[in-house]
Amino acid sequence: MTRGFLIAVLVLAACGGESTNDVATDTRMPIAVQYVRGAALTIHVKPNDASAVVTSYQHGESVSILSRRGEWAEVRTAAGSGWAHSGELADAAEASKAEADNVKPHFIRGPEPVTQPGATGDLVLEADVNTDGVVTNVRTISNTTGSMSLEMRNSASLRQAVFTPVVRHGRREAFVYEHRVHY
Q1: Which pTM value belongs to this model?
Q2: Which phi and psi angles does 82 have, rounded to 5°?
């Protein structure tokens, strides 16, 4: 018993000299600074969509590019670095243009089409969209299809849509979007 205790004490003493805070700081200079093009930018551990997500950045935020590998860019994060799709990043000129006055909403990701064989009529929905282009609420204005299921599925689809932010005089604005579907 004493021998086991002595071994345990020696192991703990040997481990005690190591600091758990010995994290190497990445001091590489960035090769570029770019900006998030879409609504959000997902940062992965490795340049692979299947790898774990370490963080994300929002539309318009700047990121420091440390290196590139094919269609992936290594970006600096608070905890080190991670990988993002290069196509989801914009240079300063594109980012400035995107933030210029844009009073007409455009889809970044539109609602998925909803079908129902034999359905006839029209569906009119209104979506409240926040300053980041995210749909926060959907309400039905009219439904002449007679199908609650069709109405619910179209509402759910519109909730998943993402818009480019509406910008007026350099400031983002929330807006209401009217969505019409004809069957």
Answers
A1: 0.48
A2: -160, -175
